[in-house]
Every structure is written in C-alpha cells, then in structure tokens.
Amino acid sequence: MQRGSQTLGVVRAVALTVAVLFVSGCAESADRSSATTPPLFSAAPATSTGPPAASTDVVDTTAGPPTTTAVTVADTVAMAATSINASTTGTSTTAASPATAGAIADEITAAEQGIRDTSLSAASVAAFGRRQQHAYQLLARHPELLEAVTGLIPADVAVAFGFNVDARQAVADHAAGAPPSEPSPTLPAWSIVEPRPIDELLNDYHDAEAATGVPWQYLAAINLVETRMGRISGRSSAGAEGPMQFLPETWADCCTGDIDDPHDAILGAATYLAASGAPTDMLAALYTYNPNEGYVRAVIAYASNLVADPLAYRGYHAWEVYVGSVAGTIRLPVGYVADAPVDAVAYASTHPDDVS
Fold this sequence. Notes:
two-stranded antiparallel sheet; mainly alpha; 356 residues; disordered N terminus
C-alpha cells in the first residue's frame, strides 16, 4: 500500500482551505435544492463484497450538561461521544487484528476508500461505514499510536482522517477538563430504530437548507451527534425529544410539525439555527444550539468533512449506537427497546455479543 509521510501537514492545510471556502460560501447555500441533489447510490448497485465489521464507539459519561441551553442533547457531550468517544474502554471485535499503527492505518484507509467507492451497493458501503466507526474507536483507545498512524495515511484519505480525528479529539479535550464520574449502572430508556433511508434523509437536509440557508452539512453533523441519524428514539435526561433533540417547550416556540418526524425536526433545527445567526455566523448559532465547546467543535469537524467530500455522509449514516456502562461498552442494536433504564450487568449477561 502506498503511504504518505506528510499527511498531517496536508490535512491541516486542506482543512483550513475548506473552512475558509465553507464560510465564504454560506450566503449562497440557500440556492441549492433537493431537486438537484444527486443520489448517493446508483439505481443498480453492485453486490456486496463482504460482511460488515462491528464498531465500538462508547458514550463518554465524564462530561456534565451545560449550565444553559435552549436546545439540548441526551447528556450533552455524552451524546456527542456516542459518535466520537475518547474512552479507552472496550476491545476490538476482531481479536486477530493487532492494535498496531499499520493495522489501524490500513483499516481506516480501507474504510474511507470503501465509503467513496460508487460501484458498491448500499449494504457494502454501510459495512465500510461500520468498519470506519470501529477503526477510529480503536485509534481512540490507543492515542499513543496517533502520530504513527497519521504518517501512514495516504493522501487520498488524509483530509477525512484529519477531520474525523479532530471531531473525536474535541470531545476528548472537553472530557479531560470535566469532573470524573462513575460509569452508569444502567442502559438508557431508548428505542433504537432504523434511520430514514440515506437519500431521503439527504433530501430532508437539502430542503431545510433551501428554506433557511443553513448548510446541509451542519444539519447532518448535528443529526449524527444527537441521535445517530435518528436511530435513538426516546427522551434525553433533560427531556429533549426527536432526532434533533429539542426540548418540547423550545419546539413550541420556534417550530411547527412533528418533533419526532425527521423532515420536520431537521427543518426545525435549521429554523432555530437561522434565528440564532446562521448561516452568517455558524459558530454563534451552534453555541446557541448547545453551548458546549466539545459539542460545537465536533459538529464543525464533521460538517467540514462533508463539505470536503459529500460522499463521507455514506459512512456516517451507517454508524451505530454504543454506550458506556459498568458492564463495559455495549452496542444498542436496532430493535433494542427499553421503556425504563435497564440494568447494564444483567443486559450484558444476556447479550454477550454486544459487549466489548
């Protein structure tokens, strides 16, 4: 495999360029409509090339909720950490794969390239998305390998690698300064459901962008961080609801429609952001949405990756839900239903394949 030794410099330079272009282009974003959005998959995709690999992201429960917020997420940064955790708990689902810089770099490279292979079927791309999620989690558990892995990432993957690492690091930095907390003895009272199909959800983002001018990349990044593209159905500890996690009273003040409907919720989030300064001042708008530095930095990193390459969304759409607990890192698969908190140890004993 051809590897690049100057990856980190390339990532930073391109990231800065993308950020500048993104800010300068926001005023024109409302002209884009879903009617001109190409589908992320062809009508006749190729057949799957292999089974998916599971991921191991963890909810980081060390960070507390913000002191003030109008729109919230389940446990604030804890929800963000469902996507970009900095925890060192958990183990690889592929025991034969050593945690070496070369192995991690190879897996990240394969996953990032697979996500962008337009000849693959939706199922194959989703499998690469789960491998991507797991690979970055593995790197998070071995931060001592980051420099070596960075030097082994090829140029065609460098930009995506940089943004995904930045997103994870945003939560890691925030959690490092938060008071320590004990792992939760329970799993959340959620239902985990299939997300809206990828092209339909993309159209929802573009519809909201056309109506408000808020770039779709930010809406997708928020949806990823909040509820894994709508996989998490249930109230947060603060009482927030729906795929974009609104407090019911906030929703009543700013939005219309069904708080649980993806299209309505995404439009509601865009409306709220626009009223808070977007797209002219996305930073201020995001801090109004959730005044948490780790959250905001993570959303910006994911959104920037989507600006750099919209095909990155194909990977994010496949990311699964993992939570941390006293029983370890537990995957909550589609079909998980809990009307009340679930004893983590008891659940782990009956679902050993979901524990890492």
